């Protein structure tokens, strides 16, 4: 009986030691997993920071490579320009989508001039230079002034057949800037009465 009790006591001690070791191993393994996770986070952090820095550098490079507002819009209206370059008118061919409906749409842009609704002798002294467009259809004896700077000339109701639109870049006194006349000749095909306007 004594031997049985000794064996039972030994077994209980072994059980408790094994239980303690298992718990200790579990705690140690848990701490190791936490440490590995923390190391992974810390190792990933520099990669994230480098990625963010790379993205910022890329954005800064993009800003440097993009055209500035001055490049696109021209000079600021707050500073007079010395030796202003001559104004220039650029007009694209008519957009083909409108012609079957009897509509002339032509995009345009100007350089070295702001299109604004300002007229008269005093406006000729403004710097940066200002002006507007004169538009004539089919050599008619009348024209209209466009000072909207809308980017697209819009003429509706043209009958089928060949037409001509003359676009002139003019100063505030309606004088054409030398060489700044664009004439577009185009054909409106036969169309039904449905219009886009």
**CA(first)-CA(last) distance:** 112 Å
Shape: elongated
Cα-based radius of gyration, to the nearest Å: 40 Å
Beta fraction: 25-35%
Q: Tell me how many strands there are.
A: 8
What's the rounded overall pLDDT mean? 80
Going by helix content, strand content and strand pairing, the class is alpha+beta
Largest sheet: 5 strands, mixed
What's the helix-strand series? HHEEEEEEEE
* Low-confidence parts: none
Number of helices: 2
Share of helical residues: 25-40%
Protein model, in words:
The strands form two sheets. Strands 3, 4, 5, 7 and 8 form a five-stranded mixed sheet that branches. A hairpin with a 6-residue loop joins strand 4 (130-137) and strand 5 (144-146). Helix content is 35%, strand content 26%. The model has no long low-confidence stretch (mean pLDDT 80). The chain is elongated, with a radius of gyration of 40 Å. It has helices spanning 2-65, 69-73, and strands at residues 88-91, 104-111, 114-115, 130-137, 144-146, 152-155, 161-170, 176-188. With 197 residues, it is an alpha+beta fold. The termini are far apart.
């Amino acid at each position: 009986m004594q031997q049985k009790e000794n064996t039972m006591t030994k077994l209980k001690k072994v059980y408790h030691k094994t239980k303690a070791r298992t718990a200790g191993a579990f705690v140690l393994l848990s701490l190791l997993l936490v440490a590995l996770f923390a190391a992974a986070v810390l190792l990933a952090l520099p990669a994230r920071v480098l990625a963010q820095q790379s993205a910022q550098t890329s954005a800064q490079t993009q800003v440097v490579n993009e055209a500035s507002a001055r490049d696109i819009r021209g000079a600021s209206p707050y500073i007079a320009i010395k030796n202003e370059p001559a104004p220039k008118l650029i007009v694209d061919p008519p957009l083909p989508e409108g012609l079957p409906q009897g509509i002339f749409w032509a995009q345009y842009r100007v350089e070295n001039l702001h299109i604004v609704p300002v007229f008269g002798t005093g406006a000729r002294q403004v710097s940066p230079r200002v002006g507007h467009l004169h538009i004539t259809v089919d050599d008619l004896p009348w024209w209209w002034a466009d000072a909207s700077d809308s980017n697209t000339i819009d003429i509706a109701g043209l009958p089928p057949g060949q037409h001509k639109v003359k676009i002139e870049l003019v100063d505030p006194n309606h004088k054409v800037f030398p060489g700044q006349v664009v004439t577009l000749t185009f054909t409106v095909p036969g169309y039904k009465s449905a219009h886009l306007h």
